[in-house]
């Protein structure tokens, strides 16, 4: 089978789950075609080893040689921009008809493919995977049904990474039969389980994330400040790995809270360096929150990796996180934006290292059983094969004229 992937930018360090899914299909004998807006040059990604060599060799940009027109198209009036973009999409996406099935990561890319299905240009069935902001923000703004009208009508299957997002799509009008949950996962065999007790030593707390509002790092700092005030005898350290627009304000907050001597901002690191830091940590702290614009997590891969490595995960009752972490059994959860409750969870964990060993082992087993990328990729391969078999062999009729659909959101390549 040949599978066409539609993504935004490729490859992205923050979207290793996309790379891992593609690699899992290559291992199973699938041929991959990647269509993206932009091919990224990121030195933190090893482009000279497999599977990246194979995947990059199969990667093409939307609009091909005409990609340089994207800046000009973006400046056109909305209606004209939509029409020009759609014509260019039609011209340069026909190569996807060599594929047996199309996989679009993130809703906006799925809707773009659905538009081509609407104009009967694209033949293969379209499977879209929704991850977070692509479903949470339009749902927050009551725009989900209009923004994804094409997918709801023309998409073969809409997959969400958690149950909450599936409920959002169903509420927007998607059918039960065309909507399902498919978790992202990790490869546990690539992460050795190494429980390290902090009994008699300095506890090390780590966060790995992009520094944006929904990650809740502000509340991690406030909780640790509350813990510092109530339990000054606990000599902890906090390492924050990642970068983003909130870094400066978070560094300022750490200083204002009197935590500068305990908190280290380490910036963005290559994946292998992140794993090395995880091996020297005891707790993984990610108190995710719903952002002001409605943005939400799916189920963070960073939590899965930490749990697989033997760290104690401390997070929040947010989005799909409770599907991964059961409070007191496979980790610890506090309400969103509740620094005092989060501090209480941290204090209990610091005080009970022996009890936490059982929690860490249960967390590893949870990841192995339910968030194992090898198992999930095998299941995904079956989903693709079934979709391809059920698809009609050809579309009827030539493309018809292009008129802007009502409620559309014109985009650019």
Could you give a short description of this structure?
With 413 residues, the chain is α/β, with parallel strands linked by helices.
By CATH, the superfamily of the largest domain comes out as: Glycogen Phosphorylase B
Strand order of the largest sheet: 5-3-1-6-7-8-9
Count of DSSP H/I helices: 17
Rg to the nearest angstrom?
23 Å
| Helical/strand content category | alpha/beta
CATH arch. level architecture of the largest domain? 3-Layer(aba) Sandwich
Helix content: 40-55%
- State the distance separating the first and last CA atoms: 27 Å
The total strand number stands at 15
Q: Using the coordinates shown, work out and report the CATH topology of the largest domain.
A: Rossmann fold
* Overall pLDDT score: 92
How many structurally independent domains? 2
Q: What are the low-pLDDT stretches, counting only 5+ consecutive residues below 50?
A: 394-413
Indicate the CATH class of the largest domain: Alpha Beta
The biggest beta sheet is recorded as: 7 strands, parallel
The global form is globular
Task: Estimate what percentage of residues fall within beta strands.
Answer: 5-15%
